[in-house]
Amino acid sequence: MATLSDIGAAATINLLSAITFLVAFAILRLQPVNDRVYFPKWYLKGTRTSPTHARASVSKFVNLDYTSYLRFLNWMPAALRMPEPELINHAGLDSAVYIRIYLLGLKLFIPITILAFAVLVPVNWTGNTLERLDDLTFSDIDKLSISNVGSGSERFWAHLVMAYVFSFWTFYVLYHEYKRIAYMRLHFLASEQRRPDQYTVLVRNVPPDPDESVSEHVEHFFCVNHPDHYLTHQTGFWALWGKTVDAIDYYTAEIEKLSNKEAIERERVTSDPKAIMPAAFVSFRTRWAAAVCAQTQQSSNPTLWLTEWAPEPRDVYWSNLAIPFVEITIRRLIMAVAVFFLTFFFMIPIAFVQSIANLDGIEKVFPFLKPLIEKEVVKSVIQGFLPGIALKIFLIVLPTILMTMSKIEGYTSLSVLDRRSAAKYYLFILVNVFLGSIVTGTAFQQLHNFIKQSANEIPTTVGVSIPMKATFFITYIMVDGWAGVAGEILRLVPLVMFHLKNTFLVKTERDREQAMDPGSLDFASAEPRIQLYFLLGLVYSVVTPILLPFIIVFFGFSYLVFRHQIINVYNQKYESGAAFWPDVHRRIITGLVIAQLLLMGLMSTKGAKQSTPLLVALPVLTVWFHKFCKGRFEAAFVRFPLQDAMVKDTLERATEPHFNLRSYLRDAYIHPVFKDEEFETPPAIDEEENNLLVPTKRTSRRSTPSQSKMGSDRGSDLGV
C-alpha cells in the first residue's frame, strides 16, 4: 500500500520530468532552426517569416542572444495575454471552448478543495478509527479519507452536507458555463462571415430513378419542393484517388505523364453514372431557406431525402456520404456490440497490470526479483509510478481503434466522428480506468466476484474500494496530467520528424512548409481524458479530498499549455462552432451521478443509515438539472434560429445587393480531388424558378409537381 513517502517519490519523479520538458522547450523554442516547429500557426497565417534567412551561418541554427535566455519563461504570460474574443478570431470557437473545459475544472474544484480541506480533512483526520483497529495495514493518506471515520459516527453528517454543497456548486458552475457557451455559439454564428455551409444542406439517400441521373433527380426534386429558394447543388463522387504529386524539377516529365493519366481518370469518373453518390450538397438562395430545409422532413418516407446541415467543406468525410440508411443502422448495431466487448474484455489486461504493480504480485510472478524490489527506493518507484505509466501505455493505441469504429458507423463529418469516438473512449475510460482499476485492484478473483454479484450490490462494492485506490489515481494524475502535459508542449516527435524531413527530403520552400506539421487538438481522445479528471474530482471530493490539489494542478497547467499550443501551434482541421459542448456537459453530469451513487454505497457500509434516504435525492436532482439545461440550451447546438438567419440574410441583401452567391458556392463542395480542375456543375433552371412547370427527361411532356411521379410519389413511397 502506497504511503505519503511513495506519493512523494512519484511526485518528485513527475515534477522533475515536467520541469525537464519545460526547460527543454523553453530553450529549444528560442533556436531559429526550430521556429517552424514551435510557431507553425503563424507561418500558416503568413505573419511570420523564418529567422534563419537573414542571419549569419551560426546564428541560423543557434540563438546567440544570451538575454533571450533570461526571459525563457515569458511564454507563460504570453499564453494568457490574448483575450478570448481575439482567441476566437485567431483559432476558432472550437479551440476557445475547448480551453474553457480546463477553466471550468478550475472554477469547479478550487472552491470545492477549499471547503473540503476546511471541513472534511479535519473531520477525517481526527476520526482515529484506523489506529484502533488491530491487524489492519493503512497509510497516512487513508487517515485523511472517510475510511478513518468510525461506523455509525455522527461525523458522517459533515460528508452528507458537503455532498449537497458540492453538487449544488457543480449545478451553478455548469449552468452558467452552458449559458455562456450557448451565447458564444449563437454570437459566433450570427457574426461569422459568409461560409458555404450557411446556405447548404447535405441530402442523403437520394432514391434511384430509371429516367434521370442522380444530379438531375436532385435538381428536379428541389425545384419542385423548394421552387423559390433552391439555387444549385453539387453531387458527391467516390473518393478514389490520393494527393497530387509535388512539382519537383527533375520529375517534371514523370509528373506530366501522371497528370495526363489523372486527367483521363477524372474525366472517366465525371461521366460515369456509377461513380456518382446518391447524396448531394444542395445550396439555397438564403440562410433562412437552408435552415428550413435542414430542420424539416422532405418526404413522407423518413428514410429517403434525408436532410441535415451540411458540415463546412473541410469537415466533410467523403467516404461515408453514400451509405444507405438501412446499412447505417446495421453498421451501428454491430459497432455497439463490438464496443461493448472491447470495453468490458479489456478489464483482463487492466487487472493483470494492477496485479503486477502490486509488490506481492510481482514477487509471486518473478520471485528472483524479491531482493531488488524490497529496497525502499525501488519499492517507492513501483508503487508510486509503475501503475500509472502502465495504464498510460495501454491507452495509446485505443483512440485509433475507436475512430475506425466510428468511421464504420457511417458518420459524414470529421467533427461528428471525433464526438462519437470521444463517447466510446469515455465509456472505455469509465469502465476500465475508473471502475476496472478500483474493482480489479490486486487479483483476478475480485473481478470474478464483481461480475457474479447482483447489480444493486455494485455501488456498495465499488464504494468500499474507492478510498483504497486514491493513491493509484494520484500517481496516474501525476504521470498523465503533469509529465504528460509537459511532454505535449515539448513536441518531441514533430521536432525530430521536421528535422529529418528538412535534412533528407526538403528541396523547395513548399516541401519545407509540408514538413512543418502543426497538428490539431485531438478531441476524440483528449476530451474523454479530461472527463476522467472531472470524475475523479467529483468522486473523491467527499471520500478522499487529498486528491483534489493534484487535479487542480492538472487543470491549471493544462490550461496554460494548451492555450499556448492553440495560439502558436495547432491548426484545426474544421470548425463546428463548439457543437461538442452538450457532450461535455452530459459527461460531467454522468460523473456527478456516479459520484453520488458510489457515496451512497459507501455510506451504507458505514452504518450511516440515516444518510441513504437523504442522498437518494441528489441523483434525482442531478438528472432533473440535466434535463433543464438540455431543454434550455441544447437547441442552440443542434438548430439555427430562423430569426437569426433572416436577420443575416436581410443585412446581406442591404449591404451586398449584387453579390453572386452562385459563383461563391460553385466549387465549395467539390471533392478535394477535383479542387484544382475546372469542374462543370449542373446549372439551376433560372428561367423556370418562378414557374410551376419543371422540365424532366422522364417524358417528352413537361410535368408539374402534381404530375411528377418520381419527384413526389416515388420519392415518398413508404414501401408498404
TrEMBL record:
Tagged with keyword Transport: yes
Residue span(s) of domain CSC1/OSCA1-like N-terminal transmembrane: 7-177
One Pfam family named in its UniProt record: PHM7_cyt
GO CC, any one term: plasma membrane
Segments for region (Disordered): 680-720
Residue span, CSC1/OSCA1-like cytosolic domain: 232-320
Membrane-topology annotation of the record: Multi-pass membrane protein
TM region positions: 6-28, 101-123, 156-175, 333-357, 377-404, 425-444, 532-562
InterPro entries attached to this UniProt entry: Csc1-like, CSC1/OSCA1-like_7TM, CSC1/OSCA1-like_cyt, CSC1/OSCA1-like_N
Bias kind Acidic residues: ranges: 680-690
Major localisation: membrane
Keywords of this entry: Ion channel, Ion transport, Membrane, Transmembrane, Transmembrane helix, Transport
Locations listed in the record: Membrane
Any one GO molecular function term: calcium-activated cation channel activity
Record's compositionally biased regions (Basic and acidic residues): 711-720
Domain (CSC1/OSCA1-like 7TM region) ranges: 331-603
Family per record: Belongs to the CSC1 (TC 1.A.17) family.
Name of this protein: CSC1-like protein At4g02900
